[in-house]
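Mods, move this if it's the wrong board.
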Amino acid sequence: MKLVAVSAGLSTPSSTRLLADRLAESARGELAAHDQEVETEVIELRELAVAVANNLVTGFPSPQLATAIDAVTGAHGLIAVTPVFTASYSGLFKSFFDLIDPDALTGKPVLVAATGGTARHSLVLEHALRPLFAYLHAAVVPTAVYAASEDWGSGGDEYTEGLPARIRRAGGELAALMAVRAVAQEPGEDDITALERQLSDLRFD
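Not the wrong board. Structure tokens:
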């Protein structure tokens, strides 16, 4: 299987890229623990910024941008991570997904995540990111992950989970959905056998 993470971070190093890497590793680890091989790829949108702008103006993607779009639409699972700009996703993030065919992500398992300087922006996951991918008919996992500056290195407390725990839970949910969709797309199985395998694969910790 192929897992693609899209990072819209602009700086180097980037907390957005770091979160994308950790989420991808979490999902990959869950799949590997259940004997599922997965190839991971991270797409850095800042490297495609000029190509994205040119595509919006001309209607034609550069070869590098076309390869990135093909990777996203052809993946078995997608992780989409953006920094918070003006209480929403970044313009570069939105512009890239504006170039995706509206039907290309139908049913695709997607994990949404965001980074920001303060926890006050965490609702961006629900009022901006989740509706965007619902419009694209993606299957967004229940747990979305927001990482504020103070979350890095935090273990949480008795009332809240720390960032590592949220990453593990979200990665497990994405892995489970990817496994289910892969089984559903396998040829030659009757509906009962496919359903039994799907229920078995859903038992990710």
